[in-house]
What we know:
By secondary structure, the protein is mostly beta strands. The protein is 15% helix and 37% strand. The protein contains 10 helices and 32 strands. The strands form 6 sheets. It has an 8-stranded mixed beta sheet. A 6-stranded parallel beta sheet has the order 28-27-29-30-31-32, with helices on one face. The chain is globular and about 90 Å long.
Amino acid sequence: MKQKKLLSVVLPLMMAVPSILTAKVLNNKQLAGPPEEFELMQPMQPELSSITSKTALIPVNLEVNKSGSWEWNANLPVDNNDFSFMILSGGAKNWNIELINPKTQEVFSADEIASENRFSKYGIEGNSYEGQRYTFNNIDTGNWDIRISSETEPDQFEGFVLISNKSKYRLNSYRTNLDLILDHNINFVTQSTSNEETIEVLKDVNPIKTASMLVTYPQGNKEMYTMYDDGLHGDKLAGDGLFGADFKASQVGGYTVQIKATGINPNGTPFYRTTEHYFPVIEQTISLDNNKATAFAINDNRLNIALDVKTSEKAANDARYRIIAEVWGQDAKGQMTPISWVSTITDVQKGQLNVELDGRWIQMAKASAGNFELRNLRIEDASNFIPLIAESNMDLKVNSMPKMLQKSFTGEITQEMMMGVPPKTNNTRASSKLLLVHGYCSSDVWGPYSGQFSNSATFYDLKKNRTHDDFANRIKNFGSGYSSFGVVAHSQGGAASLHLYTYYWSGLDYSSGQRMIQSVGTPYQGTPLAGNLAAIGDVFGVGCGYNYNLTTSGASSWLSGIPTWARNQVNYYTTSFSTKWWRYDYCSMGTDMFLSDPEDGVIEKSRGQLSGAYNRGHKTGWCHSLDMRDPGQTSDSSRNYSMSYYAKR
Length: 649
């Protein structure tokens, strides 16, 4: 029996890998939608992806003292009687933790005065770090001192103290610019806030007295920048409580930025908060060759819009770009009128990027004659959705029109108008399936429960870090052996499946049934943990790697190109821990210090929402991963049977 059970696990892995590695490049869709969606397709507003923090992440660095022992000392601001901190020591066993009371100057071991001391993990799936959490009740507020020491050479010299207060005063920070390009300036702003529903500045009682920004560059060097409230550093008005600073992105690669703010709360207690951010900087490898676009009919219904571009020698041969633009034309009165937005993910062919437009959009707008324009054009890299080209307006010269413009049009918006012409299908492939898709850096979250899904196949790409675009391609390649498929996905797998349906033709487009994509615990709006873990990973190692698509700003950039018709095919679920009045409740004791309730240990409920999709409900008593306090989301047999029943295949 053991041999059979082992084979049942190994064979799917063996079958999955070849299909992932050997599949060809996908056919891209030609996206379009009505002018009513122009706002949805605009670049993300940076302030809407801001991070609000109730914590401070303090770096630890033990150094040898005169007596030959090792020691680190720091201030530990406590602004609420209920307080906790977590020691992230990289597994060190010989760190001694002491606290000094600010009022009595008494020295205590952390174990002595903590009401609770527990081991916990902090992170996302396989990208987690071990730590020890100390909880304190009815503790004196004020500036405590913390001392970490070791009589002998420590197992680990560096680490972190993550402190969390239950105070209502928090820190809100965000990056203001989208152009994450080499040698461009990167600007951040920060301000205090009294709750998570508003980012209004506390003008009369602003707790922040000083703010700074620690930048870790891709090559590991660090620079500290002072943040100012003078109206000259991207911070709007002088004295308005908004602090800003910028720096030059002088290296290509991943950056981590920690913003630290200190001051005094209105009640006289110390204010100390940090926010952590991760983002990549890329090179400007593509530019427009001229400020004009040309179009010509490619069949009776469709136009091809060509953009002449120049690519640098550093551009990858397989580089892909996301194009988004509005098409405008003249109506019968000679006035410019909106026609449609267009989009695709494609590569450069013979010095051009190409996107298509169905002529029926022109008919709907009654703009079949006169001048045409592209507006709000942006061209982004397809991995991180960083704008490489942005043009507010450019001429569109139409050399020939589709013949269908001479015929009558019913006004019905068809799938071909929204997605383009589908490729011919291969009818010799196997029958339809329901694909079970895991997430970022994941263990086998579906395998043990695959029996709860009928006619299913489990996708395996375990313990990996993929961009949404790469992940989507791998799902498509795995499913290419089936005539059609639907998806049940966990975590990032939901976003990757939505990306697949939006931009590429796949078995999803030929599925039948009720629900094409069903997801649980997917961070459609990102998770603040992604930036926080990047800062920790700079010391302890990267684990599965940094993923910008999972950050709040990266997720917002991606979502700014996902249309309504694609979102309509998503059915999503969120969960959080169960609450009991007699106990402290959490999914992960570590991440509970950092995330805002309700949350599942990785994803905050608010950031698991997807506008335009179907919210199938929030359920308590279930956590993101299988190793958390409450059962893992993927083990919920009731939801699994329901998802199996309603799934398209």
